Amino acid sequence: MGKVYPDATAALAGLLRDGMVIHSGGFGLCGIPDMLIEAVKESGVKNLTVVSNNAGIDDVGLGKLLRTKQISKMIASYVGENAEFARQFLAGELEIEFNPQGTLAERIRAGGAGIPAFFTKTGVGTKVAEGKPTAEFDGETYVMERGIVADLALVHAWKGDTEGNLVYRRTARNFNPMMATAATVTVAQVEHLVQPGEIDPDHVVTPGIYVKRMIALPSGYEKRIEQRTVRPRGAAATPAAAGTEKLA
To answer: Domains in the chain: how many in total?
Structure first.
């Protein structure tokens, strides 16, 4: 079978199990692999450790897995706008391993690069560094952080070919590329599926060797916005009126 599967359930068949570690791409609701997350929810697997910048909002994306109590531990950088995430954390129902955002990104990147650990100044002298080894370099103290390799990475891409080469669009790129490299198996959902050769090699961000399975998103796929911030549209000034204002 090729890498392209008919739907998310088929793409995740045989991969999911209780207690596994999952990378989930995205930032808030931007670039999240929501159809793959929905398939994880429907599978009923539980006691999951999920690595993600945050858990989005209630009942969307990872918020679905929090609501069903399928996640037992989050490795994240902040709680964000998800009220259920905050409630479970404060109630002691959910274990959270907080990371500075840059440290989280580097832990994932290091895992994909085969680097078991690295040293950083970020978090030294704070709760982030408690229980972790430290070392001095050039007279400065650094804390050791471990790379993260997941059992499964779920990522979202703007375009992909049937060989698994992926291209991301603007801020939806976020954590997706590094997560794609840092898991035993990577499954991608793509907005536009094309044939090999239709993506300029110079534009490929994630080479297909990292992607084992993928699905094409249906037409009309909805991109959710976490917080829509706009300003009222004012009346457009005519060129003549604009010129008059300048002269006045």
So the answer is: 1
The predicted-structure confidence for 55-84, as pLDDT tens digits, reads as follows 888 889 999 999 999 999 999 998 877 889
Q: Say if 229 falls within a structural domain.
A: no
For residue range 119-136, list pLDDT tens digits in order.
Answer: 999 999 999 999 999 999
Question: 34 is in which domain, residue-wise?
Answer: 8-114+149-216
Q: Is residue 3, in this structure, part of any structural domain at all?
A: no
Residue 102 is which amino acid?
G
Of 185, 183, 227, the closest CA to residue 5 belongs to 185
Distance CA 30, CA 44 (A): 25
The DSSP letter of residue 113 is H
CATH, residue 199: 3.40.1080.10
What is the distance, to the nearest Å, from the Cα of residue 242 to the centroid of all Cα atoms in its chain?
A: 46
β-pairing, 134-137 vs 117-120, is: unpaired
- Per-residue pLDDT tens over the stretch 191-246: 999 999 999 999 999 999 999 999 999 987 787 777 777 888 777 655 555 554 44
Would 2 be classed as within a structural domain?
no
Whether 138 maps to a domain, the answer reads no
**pLDDT for res 238:** 59
- The CA–CA distances, whole Å, from 212 to 114, 128, 131, 243 equal 19, 34, 36, 60
Is 56:62 a contact under the CB 8 Å cutoff? yes
Q: What is the pTM of this model?
A: 0.89
